[in-house]
Amino acid sequence: MSAIIIGGSFSNPEKLIAKLVEAFKDWTEQDINNDYWREQFTTPKWKYAGEPTRRRNPAALIKDAGNPRDIYDYGDLYKSGKESYKFSVLPDVAEANWRWDATNKQGDYYAYYVHEGLGTNAEPRKWTEELSVPAEFEASEIKKKLLAKIKTAMGTK
User: Fold this and answer.
1) What pLDDT, in 10s, does the model give residues 47-103?
2) Rounded to an integer, what distance in angstroms lies between the CA atom of residue 51 and that of residue 75?
């Protein structure tokens, strides 16, 4: 048995778009801004070429940082991104943005140095790669979470 579809239409496409936007917003707020960033910063999974170090921050999640290590340290970089989260909906796009603008003691932004492994950061810690590099995103668990949110929003899960 086969069928040929010769036409089709959507009624109320605004409702479909609204459901997709809401699923995307929920994913960026909950799965990315809350869970994903926390996991990226607090899990000891990042390479470190030097000797283990004792963190001076009394509130550090991990006091003796070795290899691998987390990148939370004082939490300034993590908080700068998490607290900068903005979600917006324009006529043709829904987007989520983060600004990693923590500064060091000299007042210099340092997210780029940590991310790319520059300066005193001998190893890159590319905490955004899974979201910003298409090939990484395609194979990621975080993509599966987005698809699950969309399926739920569409009533297909």
Assistant:
1) 888 788 877 777 777 777 778 888 988 899 999 999 999 999 998 899 999 999 999
2) 21
Rounded Cα gap, residues 31 and 37, in angstroms: 9
Rounded-to-integer distance, Cα 114 and Cα 94, Å: 29
Side-chain-side CA neighbours of residue 60 (13 Å):
17
Domain boundaries, the chain: 13-154
Instruction: Reduce the secondary structure of 73-110 to three states and give it as a string.
Output: CCCHHHHHHHHHCEEEEECCEEEEECCCCCECCCCCEC
Distances (CA, A) of 77 to 6, 81, 104, 110, 131: 54, 7, 10, 8, 18
Cβ-contact 111, 124 below 8 angstroms = no
Axis crossing angle, helix 141-154 with helix 13-26, rounded to the nearest 10: 140
